Amino acid sequence: MPEQAHATERLHTLRAEQAALLAAGAAQLDSVRWHYFEVLAQRAEQQTGAAQALLCNKLEQVLETLQQQCATKTENQDKRVEAAPSPLADLLKGMSPQQPHDPLNPPGEWRRESPRVQQFRQQLGRLSVQKKISQAIAQAPQNAGPINSHMLVLRSLGIMRDVSPDYLNRFMAYVDTLMCLDQAVPGKAKAKTKAQG
Length: 197
Hints:
Shape: elongated
Strand content: under 5%
Helix content: over 70%
Order of helices and strands: HHHHHHHHH
Number of strands: 0
Oligomer: single chain
């Protein structure tokens, strides 16, 4: 009977150490061994006498291994903190904007717009796109057929405006960029003037 009480007390001690390891993150560190410990502990609770003592011995071994793994993990984390920063960390630190000494004239850095100015600029762009689309739809040809390309484009833009205004804004920015690039090519501009002449 005293042996049974001793084995039960050992089991309670092991369960308490298991709870401490769970808080330290041992379950995520080695999930297979943690599951093995759980199953052994459940079996030990169901057994009595010599079988329970044998299972408690195995539990102590598994618990010791888990404690060593947690200690190794903590040491490795401490070493990583003490180690010199990696070249990538140095590069990212060098790329990050430095705090300027003079807030009025930041050295070598562009002045950034405030978020309110950016928001106002975006809202103004949206209104401009809406106005252009409304004007284009109002100037649509009156007697165009159902498969007229001009009418199809206008109809698509109108549907886009109703369904997804944000997508329409992105699409129009894309189209504006393409038109600027098209006009920036000098050969095309000369070809157009020759064709018109």
